[in-house]
Amino acid sequence: MEEEKVMLDPTQGCQLIGAFRAFHGIKDAYIVVHSPPDCHSGLLFLKSLQDNSDLRLAFTGIHPRDLVYGAEEKAMRTIKKVYERFHPPLIALLDACAPAIAGDDLDAVVFRLSEESAVKAKIIYFRSAGFHRNMWLGYENALTSLIECMKEAKDKREGSVEGKNTVNIIGFKDDEYRSEADISEIERMLKGIGVRRGAVFTSAYFRDILLSSEASLNVVLGGDGIKLARAMEKEFGIPYVVVDYPYGVSATEEFLYNICEHIHCEREVEKFINKERAHVRKAVEKAQFYLQGLHGISCAVVGDAARATALAKFLSTELGFNVSVLAFTSANFMLNECELQQKGVAECVLREPDRFEMSGRIENAGVQMIFGSTFEKKLANVLNVPLIRFSYPVIDNISLTNTPLCGFRGVNAWIENIVNAVVSRYYEV
């Protein structure tokens, strides 16, 4: 009989965090968490340290006695207060474990509010208690729940909206490190090939989400959000393409070529890529001796399936690094770790490992550099190796400049970060 794997320290959070990340990416939405202070505090901590200016989050403040008598009225009062104060077009109501176990009827809360005229916002109740699923499944399901809003908006529209040569981006998370710079670079590249950027799931206003059903194509980054893409194809007939997150020259070119196959902008793509290659080449030439010295360096990549896969491919195929350990802190429906190992992207591939197990594998691999999140800071310090931050959550670095990690311009940033992390360290002779 196969033994069940025991998790002492999981590498990802629960469904509540995944749902929060999906809904909070809608720039004018407000999140109401039906929970005691502890669940709310964790979300607030992660979000506020990443961006001090954007905290569209309230909680109902459940007291222990509410677990006996119920707290539906608290949820109603909180939603009314949020709408009265901020007037958001969308309010996402999320429940934590305690009220879900107690059986609070939040469907009734939404129904009662819809019958009243005091709250004119669209209210989505998403069952996000942590015991249901883990973070990435919470993210997938929360994204998919938005399709009902799109259907309602499409039914109300008279005629169609012009969506020719417009692509939606799915699987983008606006609380990732350098997310604003990344989406600006993606938009710049799309504009360079004559394509319009539609809605970004999720880093967009609610009105953009409602109009997303008119787009020509959905682009799924690294497989995140594939469930929504499939639902939109079924409901609205929008085709989708799954591409690697555009880290490095090869992935960026594939990103553009895949879009070109559906939008038919071959001439613009070739012209744009040739121009961008020239810019990248000039930057690489300035650092070529450093890159030759780093060729074959052993490293570990720790992050979510979409970004970590793309980064590992970039490091191994374009920079010549040896990815000794590739650890996926969260998976998605498209992840195939066996295929990655067979293709030589990494020597050891771990799918959602226990953090204790992951740290042991990385220590034994003798890596000289770690690519990961703030959570890998202690491990990097113990091993005395540089830590390059790129994956969620990054709460000990801020990013204020418009320097992307993705796209053609992101190549320069990666080279700069990697070389500086190595040569700026003090080494005993």
Q: How is the topology of this model organized?
A:
Layout: H1 15-24, E1 29-34, H2 37-50, E2 57-59, H3 66-69, H4 72-86, E3 90-95, H5 97-102, H6 106-115, E4 122-126, H7 135-145, H8 147-156, E5 166-170, H9 179-192, E6 196-201, H10 206-211, E7 217-221, H11 226-236, E8 240-243, H12 248-263, H13 266-286, H14 288-294, E9 298-304, H15 305-317, E10 322-330, H16 337-342, E11 348-351, H17 355-365, E12 369-372, H18 377-383, E13 387-389, H19 407-423
Parallel strand pairs: 1-2, 1-3, 3-4, 5-6, 5-7, 7-8, 9-10, 9-12, 10-11, 12-13
What would the keywords be for this entry?
single chain, 429 residues, alpha/beta, five-stranded parallel beta sheet, four-stranded parallel beta sheet, 13 strands, 49% helix
Walk me through this protein's architecture:
With 429 residues, this protein is of the alpha/beta class. The chain is built from 19 helices and 13 strands. It has a five-stranded parallel sheet, sandwiched between helices. The chain has a four-stranded parallel sheet with strand order 2-1-3-4, with helices on both faces. The termini are far apart. The model has no long low-confidence stretch (mean pLDDT 91).
